[in-house]
Each structure stands twice: as C-alpha cells, then as structure tokens.
Design goal:
This protein is mainly alpha-helical. Helix content is 48%, strand content 7%. Helix 8 crosses helix 20.
C-alpha cells in the first residue's frame, strides 16, 4: 500500500501556514486548518473536498485531535489511504446529519403568479418549481445549538432555503434570488426567518459569511442583505422588522466600507480582499496543489486571492486573471482579484447606500438618510468617473496593478443599470443606454440561443463561456428593463425568453426532471460545466430567477 503522508509533508504544512493570522476567524483546528485537515484532504479520500469538512464529529474535537496525534505516531507519520479512511470513519459521521425535517407553514398550493402564465407547460413547470421550495428547505437540529463543536455548520434558529446538491447550507448572495422567488410564492414568513438568520450572523461575526459554515467565516459574498430586506419590506410592509434590526443591517454595510475599500483616482471604491492565508478548507486539496512550489509572500498572496475570488461568488473566472502582460489569459495561479475594482460589487455598494437612505427615511431618521444619500451620490460618481469607459460605451472592471480598464466582455459590465446607479448622460455627454446597447450588440453575447454567457472566454472555468448563470441573466434583463428604453426592453424580453426556453428544455430532458446551477447558453437544454466540481442540481437561485421571469413575462410567452 502506498504511503501518502510523510514527515516532510507535515513539516511543509507547518511552514506553509506559518503566516496565518492567528487565531483565525474560524477557531476549528479540524474544519479550518491544521495537520488533520491537511492529511485528509491531500489523501483524496473524497472526490469533493467539501465532503470531509461537512462531516459531523463523533467525539469532542480535543479527543479527535489527540487520537489523530497518536494515530500519526503509530503510523510513523506515513499512514496509508486505507488507514486514514479508517481513522475518519471512526471519528466522523456522514455529512448532512445536522438537519431535521421541515414543512413550511407558509407554503400555499396555488400561488397567484401561476395564473398569469399563459403557456400551460410553463405554468405546470412554475408549479413544480414552487413545490421545489419544500425539497430545498432546511432546518438545523437543536443538537447543533447544544453541541456546536461537533459540527461545521453555523447554528441559526430559522429554517432556510439552500441552493442544493453539495451546497447543503445557506449561501449569502444566492439568497437574494431565492428571496425573490419565495416572495412571489408568497412565502413571506420563510423569507423573514432567513433575513433574521443573516442579521444574527452579522451580530455574531461582524459580517455575513460566504455560507453557513464555520470554515466560511474568513470571507463574505456580494453584499445583498440590504436589497433582500428592501424586497421583504416592500412586499409585506413589515416596517417593525426593519426598525428592530436596522442597526445590524447598517453594521453589515459598514463592514464593506471599513474592510473592502481603496482609493482609486481620488475616489473611494470597493474590491474583494480576504486577508487570510492558507487554502480554502472546502477546496483545500485544489488550492494546495495549485499553489505548487510557491513559498513566502507569493504563496500568501495566492491564498488571499483564491479566498477573495471565492468571496466574489465568481469562483473562478478569467475575469480575475491578470497575466504578466496584463491580459486575462492564464490559469488559477494568475488570479489577482485583490487588484481589480469590480463593476458589480461597486454597483451593489452604491445600491445599498441608496436603499439604506430610503430605509432610514422610512424610519424617520432623516440625518442618517441624508448621510447614506450622500454616499450613494459619491459612489455613483466614482463608478462613472473610474469604471465607465467612453471608448467602449460600457462600464469595465479596473486593473489597479496596471492602472487601466479591463476591456473584456463580462455579463456584470452592465450592473449599474440593474442597481440603478447610473446617469442617462455619461461624463463625456453621450447617451449611456444607447452606448451600452451598441456595446452588447458588438460583443455578440446577445446572439446566443440559450441566454447571456458569463464571458466570451472559453477557459474551462465555470464563470466563463459557454456557461450562463441565473443571477447574471437577472442582472442583464432587469438592468435593461430599468432603463425604460424600448430597444433595451425588447432585448430584455428576448434574453428572458431564451433563458426560460433553455432551462425548461434541460428540465424536461433530465431524468429525474432537474434544475441546474448553470447552463450552456450556446445550445438549448444542456447544463453547464467546468470548474472545481460537477454541475449541481437544485437549484435555489435558478428556481428563483425562473419564477421571477415567469411572473413578469408569463403573459407574453
């Protein structure tokens, strides 16, 4: 039998993690860092690295760590794969044991949106997706609350909707589009509980983690709490919910302003920047092997950029590659996201400021309302001055490393339209919407049969061509709709129709009928591919966007 873990490997692990900021935000020496995690993940016991860190401990962490130390001594620091598997089986239970059955009390059998869908096949499909909220719903067992050290999941009291597949826990920015769909399904109480969970996470951690696991505490995801709360309050009129939680909602926004902003050309703008070393626990093997022979500062920067890329939600894409020549051609070790000012992140921040201003006004605090209105105005100006590219007629990510716009098509380039963080006339006095429509036409991205591609770069990364993702279709469609321009609104409907056709064909052709996290937009009816793991079924935000499109366009299909 082959010997997998050597003394040299353990020494290498100790050296490679010597730059950790200790203690790390995640306190677990099993789920977040340490020789046990290193040994198990690099032994490749599981196809998916996330499997191990989702398992439940059979015993207290101290007991397991002591047992592991003895185990390594007994095997002379060279256990075989079979021996290591036996150790894991003896000390861990299966993943997914943290949940109990949940039957949502606010689920209704015939939500009104279905009656607006003219096409009978689409109406039946919409009903199946509405039923699907039950299968995607989760409630955490009380045992997690009582014995948190035995689990990697973060205990929250209220049930929530998960994406599906390997994503067994709640995810931050996914939940915006899930909430969209739930509100159309009139599951207001479920939404209220999910928002309360997020607010409690802000209270616990000072941020909303990427997902509901302790190993995600080092990073967040695109800031969508304030837009989610806005959707809920608009749908329900529940101002008391807002009043009781506004301080923590504001605190989450302050996290981004305090920890993710830089000065660019005299303007304050945001970037993704997770300043913690070490591999991502849920992708430990992949990060460790991609790092290769890096050491010292380059190794630290690699891990920071990989975690920051995961914080973006776009993990991964050529969008974050900066090669030596400044281009976006490269591999994962070319991820330099901390040097990039993203259009969509700054659009979300700008939108948050405007919505927060509205919320404080609703609560009668005009001083705070004016404070955030001023931030909105300044952020909108910064986006126009730094990210708007007059030559291309669109907003582009900005490369701080090379002090230039990144002139590549990404579906996020029109995010200011969706966030309503733009002016009709550019700083150079051109019509913004006409320029954007011309840009989209030149890009060829609107010519594909199945929706909008994430990029036009076929790199093998999952946030690139030919994959299309539900949230980006939503950004594109409603960005164009928000402009009120007839040509833009016609294009919005065309994109929504293509996306629905693609999703419906894939649903009908799959056995069992399934929704996917991403789709191939160069054809009709095929799931997407690429990236670090197999395409996942479910799928929370895909269902939410389809329900939203059916609700808004169902009478025209």
């Amino acid at each position: 039998m082959s010997r997998l873990i050597t003394v040299l490997a353990i020494i290498a692990w100790t050296f490679s993690t010597s730059t950790f900021q200790l203690p790390p935000p995640c306190p677990s020496e099993i789920y977040c860092y340490g020789p046990l995690l290193h040994a198990v993940q690099n032994a490749e016991l599981y196809k998916d690295s996330k499997t191990f860190v989702d398992k439940k401990l059979r015993f207290n962490p101290e007991i397991v760590l002591t047992s592991f130390s003895q185990f390594m001594t007994d095997t002379e620091n060279q256990p075989t794969k079979e021996e290591l598997q036996a150790f894991v089986d003896s000390n861990f239970e299966a993943e997914g044991l943290e949940f109990q059955n949940w039957d949502p009390s606010d689920w209704i059998s015939d939500p009104p949106f279905l009656s607006q869908i003219n096409n009978s096949e689409f109406r039946n499909w919409g009903n199946r997706l509405h039923e699907g909220w039950k299968s995607l719903g989760r409630q955490i067992k009380d045992d997690v609350r009582d014995n948190p050290d035995l689990y990697s999941i973060v205990y929250v009291p209220n049930p929530f909707i998960v994406p599906g597949g390997r994503f067994r826990e709640s995810y931050y920015w996914d939940s915006y589009w899930i909430v969209k769909g739930l509100l159309i399904s009139q599951m207001n109480q479920t939404v209220r509980g999910m928002l309360d969970n997020f607010v409690q996470m802000v209270d616990m951690f000072g941020l909303i983690p990427n997902g509901g696991r302790i190993y995600y505490q080092q990073r967040s995801q695109p800031p969508m709490l304030i837009p989610m709360v806005d959707l809920y309050v608009r749908a329900t009129g529940d101002v008391d919910f807002l009043r009781e939680r506004i301080n923590l909602i504001e605190k989450e926004f302050e996290f981004w302003l305090l920890n993710r902003t830089v000065s660019v050309q005299g303007h304050t703008l945001a970037r993704y920047n997770v300043e913690f070393d070490g591999p991502r626990p849920e992708s430990y093997r992949e990060d460790f092997r991609t790092a290769g022979n890096l050491s010292g500062k380059p190794l630290e920067e690699f891990y920071v950029n990989m975690k920051s890329g995961a914080e973006s939600g776009w993990d991964f894409s050529t969008r974050w590659f900066i090669a030596e020549d400044g281009s976006n051609v490269g591999e994962l070790n070319d991820v330099k996201i901390t040097n990039i000012i993203p259009v969509d992140l700054n659009s979300f921040i700008c939108m948050n400021a405007k919505l927060l201003s509205n919320m404080f006004s609703l609560l009668g605090d005009e001083e705070k309302s004016q404070l955030y209105l001023d931030k909105f105005i300044k952020w909108k100006e910064a986006i126009q001055m730094v990210l708007w590219n007059e030559e291309e007629g669109v907003w582009l990510d900005y490369d701080m490393l090379n002090s230039r716009s990144r002139n590549y098509f990404y579906a996020s380039n029109i995010s200011p339209l969706w966030a309503e963080c733009w002016d009709p006339i550019s700083p150079q006095n051109s019509s913004v919407i006409n320029r954007v429509l011309d840009y989209l036409d030149r890009s060829q991205a609107t010519k594909l049969v199945g929706g909008i591609p994430t990029s036009m770069e076929n790199s093998g990364q999952q946030w690139d061509y030919p994959n299309g993702w539900a949230p980006l279709q939503h950004l594109m469609v409603y960005g164009l709709e928000n402009s009120a321009d007839p040509r833009a609104k016609a294009l919005a409907f065309d994109i929504a129709r293509k996306w629905l056709d693609n999703n419906f064909a894939a649903y009908e052709q799959s056995v069992p009928n399934s929704m996917f996290e991403k789709y191939d937009v160069t054809s009709i009816g095929l799931p997407g591919g690429g990236g670090e793991y197999d395409v996942q079924l479910g799928f929370g935000w895909t269902n939410g966007v389809v329900i939203d499109f059916l609700n808004n366009y169902g009478d025209r299909l």
